[in-house]
Design goal:
The complex is a heterodimer of chains A (about 110) and B (about 120). Chain A has about 110 residues and is mostly beta strands. Helix content of chain A is about 0%, strand content about 60%. Chain B is mainly beta. The chains are: A mainly beta (about 110), B mainly beta (about 120).
Chain lengths: ~110, ~120
Amino acid sequence: GQNIDQPTEMTATEGAIVQINCTYQTSGFNGLFWYQQHAGEAPTFLSYNVLDGLEEKGRFSSFLSRSKGYSYLLLKELQMKDSASYLCAVGSGGYNKLIFGAGTRLAVHP
Amino acid sequence: GAVVSQHPSRVICKSGTSVKIECRSLDFQATTMFWYRQFPKKSLMLMATSNEGSKATYEQGVEKDKFLINHASLTLSTLTVTSAHPEDSSFYICSARELRENTGELFFGEGSRLTVL
């Protein structure tokens, strides 16, 4: 079966660092994706990991451990505009369809 | 980056009518598109995989006669919600990946909000 877990909600302070964890158990694995979604809008791509290790892209970094079925998204120097839902997704199957976790709603406070 | 466009962005219809949502890849070709559904404050639920020139592959629990998918060309997929009912009200989002690209980023359309009265 497919199971992707991430915390439902998190809060953080502007300027701080926050780590959003994601664990997965899927029947196939073609890569792990993180997307950001603001309310009422479509998701926007943040990162993609297919090999173990850390991928850094500006203020955002993503880590993957395939043996542990674990990933995290690290957001540095938080800004108010980072308040959004963060979706962890696993690519699976011949078409590499994305299966999404429930999403983590992040609230950034002044 | 690549652009995926959905139309209409919002639609309100009466119960029992059918609604068609279009998904277009504007600057790339996509043999495969994916249709998702999202309820308020919930994550995206994959409904089906749309394949150009062949039948769509539906996820378990999704009624294929209720949600008709047609992938007529390499740049267009349509989702038709047939005989819509209030419980079909939701945010429908399509996504696509470039031709022959089986890994990497999936590009999402803007989404279509359906309200069935």
